[in-house]
Specification:
CATH class: Alpha Beta
Shape: globular
Order of helices and strands: HHEEHHEHEHEEEEHEHEHHEHHEE
Radius of gyration: 19 Å
CATH superfamily: Vaccinia Virus protein VP39
Distance between the termini: 58 Å
CATH architecture: 3-Layer(aba) Sandwich
């Protein structure tokens, strides 16, 4: 093994250890092939789609996303109604489903057809009698409208030159074909009202359109005060001429703070973006606006 390969192996040791630990727990619990165990009480069966299976393993075992998973499980403790906005294959939806002991509801919002098939499969493999799990194929926007999306075959976003190039590249890597299609979009409040939900936690991962979502949903957030697992696309927001600091200031104005202690001001998130310009954090409405 040369120095480069050895260095890469060492960097991946946390991944290998988490994978080993998951397999060991699954063996102890007598679980069959295709399961991932976050711990002895939170485990699920992966979807059959090989791309989704690989993505789920990365989400569970990579250091950065493993921390996000841990924060989400802590943030969602005690919650019963989860809205997963930009659910993709449903990693966070299934985490919520298998970690509930009380009657709960999940609404996974995902407009991509490939991801929808994965979500259906995932839901069927991880049925819980006490969990009602619904899927909505609409997109979330600041108004009711039709929008053109591009899909890599597993995951979609609003069409742009960057999105088209990324979708083609990812589709090629996975032996899929990228497609452009029209999506019916609606405001978050309207979608949730259609499903008769009272959300106490939401997750937002919609490739910089969190700006439009938040600013069109301030009354909704002020009214329901859900906890938020936010994926903030700092670089994409700036590329689109949207100010991420303004987005955070809007959330601050209605009482949101960082979930993890110490409860830092929201604007500190801007200094924590990773190499791709993204930062992920749990938010808590810890004061009345």
């Amino acid at each position: 093994m040369n120095l480069f390969d050895y260095s890469r192996f060492v960097r991946h040791l946390p991944y290998y250890f988490s994978d080993y630990r998951s397999r060991h727990i699954c063996s102890q619990l007598g679980l069959g092939h295709g399961y991932i165990a976050i711990n002895k009480s939170v485990f699920f069966q992966c979807p059959s789609n090989p791309i989704a299976h690989s993505v789920f393993r990365d989400m569970a075992f990579c250091a950065q996303t493993r921390n996000e998973t841990k924060e989400f499980l802590e943030l969602s403790a005690g919650c019963c109604n989860f809205v997963d906005i930009g659910a993709s294959g449903g990693f966070f939806s299934v985490l919520f489903a298998v970690s509930r002991t009380e009657a709960s509801t999940i609404l996974s919002i995902e407009p991509d057809g490939g991801a929808y098939q994965v979500l259906v499969d995932l839901c069927e493999r991880n049925q819980r009698k006490t969990v009602k799990w619904e899927i909505d194929l609409r997109g979330v926007m600041h108004e009711t409208r039709k929008e053109v999306f591009v899909s890599s075959g597993y995951g979609a976003e609003v069409t742009s030159v960057r999105a088209l190039n990324n979708a083609r590249q990812r589709a090629g890597e996975n032996n899929l074909v990228s497609t452009v299609f029209e999506v019916h979009c609606a405001k978050l409040d309207d979608i949730i009202s259609d499903h008769f939900m009272h959300p106490d936690i939401i997750k937002i991962d919609i490739e910089s359109f969190e700006f439009e979502l938040v600013h069109s949903s301030l009354d909704f957030l002020r009214r329901w005060r859900p906890r938020i697992m936010l994926e903030l696309h700092v670089a994409l927001l700036q590329a689109r001429g949207r100010d991420p600091e303004l987005l955070l200031a809007s959330l601050d104005s209605i009482g949101y703070r960082r979930f993890l202690k110490p409860r830092k001001e929201l604007h500190t998130l801007l200094t924590e973006a990773d190499a791709s310009g993204v930062v992920r954090a749990g938010l808590l409405p810890d004061r009345v606006a």
